[in-house]
Design a protein that fits this description.
The protein has 1 helix and 6 strands. By secondary structure, it is mainly β. The chain has one domain (3-95): SH3 type barrels (Roll), CATH 2.30.30. Strands 1, 2, 3, 4, 5 and 6 form a 6-stranded antiparallel β-sheet that branches. Strand 3 and strand 4 form a beta hairpin. It is globular, with a radius of gyration of 12 Å.
Length: 96
């Protein structure tokens, strides 16, 4: 379990990290384990590079994230589309 991700969720701080193809800035919402046993992060990507789109809801495989950094910048109100008890996860470590 990654304590930095948990801290960022509980404090509502932005996370910065590298995930192919580049750097990302996200609002982290839910961190847990998916059906296949991999740790997942559901987040809203605010900025950065992506194969699909630069902004929007995404699920990241935590083992693919590098150089995770908790920003001093935060977010207050959950984004439209946020859902507690994420059905994509069988176990949740942290959520808003």
């Amino acid at each position: 379990m990654n304590s930095e991700i948990c801290t960022a969720i509980h404090k509502r701080r932005l996370l910065q990290f590298y995930c192919e193809p580049g750097d990302r800035i996200v609002e982290p919402y839910v961190y847990g384990v998916g059906p296949g046993g991999r740790e997942l992060l559901r987040a809203y990507q605010r900025a950065g590079q992506s194969h699909s789109r630069e902004e929007g809801w995404k699920v990241f495989h935590v083992d693919e994230l590098q150089d995770i950094f908790i920003s001093n910048d935060g977010f207050e109100v959950p984004r439209l589309g946020y859902m507690r008890n994420d059905p994509a996860m069988t176990k949740i470590y942290a959520e808003l």
